[in-house]
Amino acid sequence: MRVTVIGSGYVGLVTGACLSDLGFKVVCLDKDEDKVKMLQAGEVPIYEPGLKELLSRNHAEGRIRFTTDAQLAIDHGDILFIAVGTPAQEDGSADLAHVLSVAAMVGRNLKDFKLIVNKSTVPVGTADRVRAAVKHELTQRGMSSEMFDVVSNPEFLKEGAAIDDFMRPDRIVVGIDDGIHHEKSQRMMGDLYASFNRHHSRTVWMDVRSAELTKYAANAMLATRISFMNEIANLADALGADVDQIRRGIGADNRIGYSFLYAGCGYGGSCFPKDTQALVSTAQAHGQLMSVVNATEQVNERQKTLLVDRLVKRLGDDLTGRKIAVWGLAFKPNTDDMREAPSRVVIKSLLERGAHVTAYDPVAGHEAMVALKLDCAGQEALLNNFNLVAHDMDALHGVDALMVLTEWKNFHNPDFQAMKLSMRTPYILDGRNLYNPDALADLGIAYQGIGRRNELINLSVEPVMLETPALNA
Ligand code: UDX
């Protein structure tokens, strides 16, 4: 069986790389010539641990190719994955233009039976629209409209761990509808994922609409857990309780479990914000309320500004002359993805209040600049007060506070003594609860985590009062 993956973005490349590594002959199709040239030359346009190695090995061994030639790509695969983007529109609903134009393109190039597999995260009912678009093209060409099937196979890949998630899935969701091709489609999908079903079947078979909704339900559930814990954390702060102890106390209940209970400065990324919005918008379109998911989003928006609110409470609303360091820009570690990253909201808000921001991230610096330029469009002057540094410690010289926004490994055990010496005021706002509040209090560093039994653990460290702008200090 041969595989074609349409769309060489994040999901498409991971899918193509992993399937080629399982031995399938894979063709990746993308309309972006520069991207395809880059891939052919062994470069990978995104940062994902292990992806570059996997692609270059399988490329060298002839199992994966990259092309812009639609006819070649459609002829190649018995299975055609659609893995193109579904960006959120103004109203939160998913934009299906790319998916539907791929469907039409497939219909224009189809010569024999193909199994079309929807990998993109798409609203319920999209498979039917893909089916209609392919049929329309086939009818135009006077061909049988029965020479394909459309199934849904949502991805559950976490950025930074995508290869592992693909190669060691908790489950594989496959939605196939009743019809003349049902058996054949099920056999093909079964063969495709046979490597993962050797010991016990990890495939959960269902109908297409249920599979489409499963993806949204999974992401909304995970996002809800995070927002729920963020609210508990904020309450814990007010009550003098510790959210980390609460996390362990509730996680031990098998029905709850430990994962995705970490309070922080809000979730970001390409999935949770977009998918929760799309779910709310789908529900609205069908006259249904999605109150829990709606609240999840609202809590998350508030959570992103929590650290700035705390800083302002201590230093005042006007941060002119203040220097603030930020460690971690990407929405989470091991990625350079800045989509919906809390750092964007935090940095813009600091700059608007007049602060000077020095930021460090191990890989996301370039992407962060691109994102911040977008966010500050029309207010470009704000970025005069922003600079990126090449080392974490370089961000700290003379600052009034450090905000830790992403839990990169190399932030876990910093040299606190050196940090204290470098900062104008030793004050850490820990958006990922990396540090031990008591240890920092012993070191004389003011500390605020999220739900760590503190309004401010070490009140003895007073902020420096500004008479002259601190930038020259
Ligand atoms: C997520 C889903 O996990 C994945 O299954 C789906 O296919 C795509 O969306 P991803 O966006 O890559 O994956 O990242 P994930 O590791 O899930 O983290 C998402 C966000 O939630 C990050 O900003 C992270 O910092 C935050 N998070 C996660 C928390 O704040 N607390 C937690 O306990 C877990």
TrEMBL record:
Keywords assigned by UniProt, alphabetized: NAD, Oxidoreductase
Entry keyword annotation includes Transcription regulation: no
Catalytic reaction annotation: UDP-alpha-D-glucose + 2 NAD(+) + H2O = UDP-alpha-D-glucuronate + 2 NADH + 3 H(+)
Binding site for substrate: 156-159, 215, 260-264, 268, 332
Gene Ontology biological process terms in this record: polysaccharide biosynthetic process; UDP-glucuronate biosynthetic process
PROSITE patterns registered for this protein in UniProt: PROKAR_LIPOPROTEIN (PS51257)
Metabolic or biological pathway: Nucleotide-sugar biosynthesis; UDP-alpha-D-glucuronate biosynthesis; UDP-alpha-D-glucuronate from UDP-alpha-D-glucose: step 1/1
Binding site for NAD(+): 30, 35, 86, 121, 159, 274, 339
SUPFAM superfamilies: 6-phosphogluconate dehydrogenase C-terminal domain-like, NAD(P)-binding Rossmann-fold domains, UDP-glucose/GDP-mannose dehydrogenase C-terminal domain
Enzyme nomenclature, EC number: 1.1.1.22
Domain UDP-glucose/GDP-mannose dehydrogenase C-terminal: 325-437
Location of the active site: 271 (nucleophile)
Domain of life where this protein originates: Bacteria
Principal EC category: oxidoreductase
MF annotations from Gene Ontology: NAD binding; UDP-glucose 6-dehydrogenase activity
Entry-linked Pfam families: UDPG_MGDP_dh, UDPG_MGDP_dh_C, UDPG_MGDP_dh_N
NCBIfam families in the record: NDP-sugDHase (TIGR03026)
PANTHER family: UDP-GLUCOSE 6-DEHYDROGENASE TUAD
Family, per entry: Belongs to the UDP-glucose/GDP-mannose dehydrogenase family.
Protein name as annotated: UDP-glucose 6-dehydrogenase
Species this chain originates from: Limnohabitans curvus
